Amino acid sequence: MTIKINNLTKLYDDRKVLDDISFEVKDGEVLAVIGFSGSGKSTILKLISGLIEADGGEIKVDDGDIAMVFQYSALFDSLNVFDNISFALHERKEFRKKYTPEQIKFMVAKCLEIVGLPGIEEKFPHELSGGMQKRVSLARAIITNPKYILYDEPTAGLDPIASTVIENYILRLSQDIHATSVLVTHQMSTIKRCANRVIMLYNGKIVFEGTPDDLIKQDNPYTRQFVTGAIDGPMKITASSF
Amino acid sequence: MSKFNIIFRETATYRFYKLFIKQMREFLETVGNIALRLLESLKYIFTLQFKLSEVIEQSKRFAIDSLPITLTIVAMTAVIVSIQVAPELVKQGGKDYIGLLVALTMVREIGTIMSGFAIISMIGSAFASEIATMKVTDQIDALRVLQVSPIKYLFVPRILAGTIMMPFIVVIASVVGIIFGGLTAQMTSHEVSGLCYYTSVWHGLYVRDINIALFKASCFGGAIALVSSSCGYEAKNGAKGVGLATTKAVVWSFVTIVIIDYCFALFFYF
Description:
The structure holds 2 protein chains of 2 kinds. By secondary structure, chain A is α/β, with parallel strands linked by helices. Chain A has a domain at about 1-65 and about 180-240: P-loop containing nucleotide triphosphate hydrolases (Rossmann fold). Chain A has helices spanning about 40-50, 80-85, 85-90, 95-100, 100-115, 130-140, 160-175, 190-195, 210-215, 220-230; strands at about 5-10, 15-25, 30-35, 55-60, 65-70, 150, 180-185, 195-200, 205-210. In chain A, the strands form 2 sheets. In chain A, strands 5-6-7-3-8-9 form a 6-stranded mixed beta sheet, with helices on both faces. A 3-stranded antiparallel beta sheet of chain A has the order 2-1-4, covered by helices on one side. By secondary structure, chain B is mainly alpha-helical. Chain B has one domain (about 15-270). Chain B has 9 helices and no strands. The interface of A and B includes residues 51 and 140 of A.
């Protein structure tokens, strides 16, 4: 279950967000994608999930369901937690045929248990905290037993403890269901704890590829600037970086 | 770039044409998107790929939420027509035609178009802002990642609800309009009796008029749902984008139903 990206190019209004980049995500691996805001990290996730089309290059994804955990959870606010998590099972023909309502109930309860939120099926998204919404979003992502999970800044906007809880679930999910994952994040703690490998984007190009340890130890001016958060360095901060 | 080009780009004429071309492109894009979404919706409708429970849910919203305001607007319009017309017709010796005139106005035009306007403001704007909010909060993207078509899940139930419920609303609104018109006519002149008014209602009102009105109402309902949902679906850039999409939905829906109304008048009454 691998994702192969070859010579991928994406333009937004004539601006090259991704410029001829190639990389591979191996079976069961968690790949972290880092870089400044606007460097094309989320664009990579949208391209892999098929939400947008590339302007050049190709994305090869082996057969299997792709799930995505969005930056702001993207829970359906008119539906309660149960309906949010079971949404795909109710709406997609192949799942409707496969599972009975009792089985779906059991599966939702199990997914909520995995993310540490048992018994909140009847609650609506607006009744949940940001961290809880992220965990419900995780539960919605894993209920179809996906082969690939894409995380778009899963710990953004959360306090350090809530971030650690989410990181634990990401680790657990990659180990338990052996999903191939792509993780977009800014947080070093998330990279260190969850990722097997890291790529760094700048100006549409990959400027670093290695392990989380390499990210800290290697004498790469780009990664050094990212890790230390220095304003001066090879990466110039522009208006689009904010 | 030559000096002439630089100067030319600063001229009002250049800016006007640039703006005009941009507006035209946006207009054509919106029309094209609405047409594509209509085709996709029809594909799901004719292959029966929709959830009946969702259609019923949207139908309830469409009919129940909009009915009070629709009835108020149509009844008030009927009262105004009656106040304006009844005394004049009585003076000219045409008291037997007051019911006919009010009924024809209600069934052929006012009942349908005023209901349409009321529904655009109540339901069309709600459809647009809901879908726009879903768009800017990534909920539509979430639907697509979960491999559920947003057109099938969001557009089809709304279009069906509009197409099915609008004729019922128009019938109720027109009847209420005719009754209120009659009551007003009786109040404005002692020469107009209830019997005289209601007898004249049936003098010039044919089944054909009612059928055309029902068909037109159905087209209005479907068009309002489609255009509003489509404009909401185009939203981007946060809260401001939701506001712009809702405004666009209301304006485009108004224009669409007026164009449909014009086509009906041309085709059936010209």
